[in-house]
Every structure is written in C-alpha cells, then in structure tokens.
Amino acid sequence: MLTPEERLEQLESVFLELEEESKRTPIIVEGRKDEVALGLLGVKSNVVTLSKGMSIFAFCENISRMSNRAIVLTDWDKKGGRLARMLKEALNANGVEVDSEIRAKLVILSKKEVKDIEGLPPFVSRLRSMMEGRRQMPGLRYGKRI
C-alpha cells in the first residue's frame, strides 16, 4: 500500500506526463468542470470536452481530424466507464489510437477517495496539506518517527 507521500508523488508525475502529452495529443474529458480541474493541476492545453448535442461518433470523427492519438479521461463511475469504452470504440473506428492507461493510473492512485476528474484538485490539496503537517511535526520525517 502506498504512503500518502508516494501517492502524491505519483499523482504529480501523472499530471506532468499529461501536460507533456497534451502538447501533441487531445485529452478528452466529460465536461467543463473536468477541464477546469485539469487546469488547476497544470494541464492547460489541448483539453477537449464532449460536445453536447453531438453524437459520440461525430465527436470522434472531429477528434480524428485533429490527431491520430487521444487520451480519454472520463470519470471512474459506471457512467464514466461506459463512456470511456464507447469513446475508445468510436475513436478506434476512426483510426485514432486511445491511451486509457493514464485514466487507469489515476483510478488506482485516487483509490476510493475520488470518483471523478473534478475531485482530483481537492484530493491533491489534502495530500499536500498532510505532507506539510508531517514535515512541521518534530521527530517525524515523511510520516515516520525518527
């Protein structure tokens, strides 16, 4: 089981990876709140929200005109899982390779504490606060007694 420090470190690594990937790969999220949440985590470019009123297949056709690769970051509830599968199938049908590993990493690292993209910034803030509190306590180093 990961310590809070390790979780925070790995989450921050995923966000850096996402920011780097976003320079050349669209990141598909469900809505505006998810886009804002990623921005708070440092991922500000090439985040695309699902278009209301447009079929998933038409949306994926548009993505295929932008790139031959996409990252799907839907929520990790049942609806988000179904949506991720539908997007992957439609994107693949349009010749777009889908990265779903980053979503899987976020699911694992956030465990049961977060169920969606918009819940990540407060979760990361809590982890950072915990780390600050531990560093300020005498006799503790990275959460362990010395």
What features would you describe in this structure?
With 146 residues, this protein is an alpha/beta fold. It contains 6 helices and 6 strands, in the order H-E-H-E-H-E-H-E-H-H-E-E. The strands form 2 sheets. Strands 2-1-3-4 form a 4-stranded parallel sheet. A two-stranded antiparallel sheet has the order 5-6. The longest helix has 18 residues, at 4-21. The radius of gyration is 17 Å and the shape is elongated.
In the sheet with the most strands, the strands line up as 2-1-3-4
Assess the beta-strand content as a share of residues: 5-15%
Share of helix, binned = 55-70%
- Overall radius of gyration: 17 Å
Q: How many discrete domains?
A: 1
Low-confidence spans: 139-146
In short:
By secondary structure, this protein is of the alpha/beta class.
Keywords summarizing the entry:
single chain; 146 residues; alpha/beta; Dna Topoisomerase Vi A Subunit, Chain: A, domain 2; four-stranded parallel beta sheet; two-stranded antiparallel ribbon; 6 helices; 12% strand; disordered C terminus
Q: In terms of topology, how is this protein built?
A:
Elements lengths: L3 H18 L5 E3 L2 H9 L6 E3 L6 H11 L2 E4 L5 H16 L3 E3 L1 H10 L9 H17 L3 E2 L2 E2 L1
Parallel strand pairs: 1-2, 1-3, 3-4
Antiparallel strand pairs: 5-6
Helix pairs in contact: 1-5, 1-6, 3-4
